[in-house]
Design a protein that fits this description.
- With 234 residues, the chain is of the alpha/beta class.
- It folds into 2 domains: 143 residues, no CATH class; 81 residues, no CATH class.
- The protein contains 7 helices and 10 strands.
- It has a 5-stranded mixed beta sheet. Strands 6-7-8-10-9 form a 5-stranded parallel beta sheet, with helices on one face.
- Helix 4 runs parallel beside helix 5.
- It is globular, with a radius of gyration of 17 Å.
- The two termini are 30 Å apart.
Length: 234
Amino acid sequence: MKIVFADDKNLYVISKGKTSNKKITDGKDLVQTYTFSLEQWHLANTSKGFGMKTFFALDSTNCLDCPFSGNGGDGGCYTHKFNQYVGFLSMLRSIKEEELTPLTQIKKSTIMIMSANTYIRFGSYGEPSLLPIRLVQSMTRVASSWTGYTHQHNKPFAQEFSKYYMASTHSDAEAIQRSADGWRSFIALAKGNDAQAVSCPASTEAGFKSNCAKCGLCSGTEGKGSKYVKILEH
């Protein structure tokens, strides 16, 4: 099940279903949000043989200046893998031009039904702080748990999302800096580095003690927990 809406630059997909990734859930349905650029949608539906690099280079409006983006970052985002790329193309090719309409109250009501008593993974692809803040507020109120992360934590437009998302940071110093603006941090560390934070229970280094749906620590200041969470870069 999925709901699609668009603005003048981006295409948003909110879907409900299962994932085979046991680090995320234990097999139960979850809701995931995706933000694509309209350029990516157009490429997927009008061209062939363009390759991953070309596709992810069109992410300037949906990934902004994320350091792992394809438009200006190092392209090292964990979503930039072949199987996920194929899944993104399939999703985009299933969306017709007539579906590229704004978020309506009917669509929002359906999203609320999808989200009720369900784990929500904000930002399965794309920048989740581009979603309407009121929609995110409403979704989290009815969800059983949620997670979300953003590299836009230093931007004025993203500050309201500190209640629901974690600041994606890469050191204790950066996490402390973001804390001054009201953010909790998810600290991704290069091998050999450490930080004063709780190890992600769904990580390799923690022995996969839990999954994201059960844990729910990465849910901003309005969710579970009060400490920073850390993980080794992957």
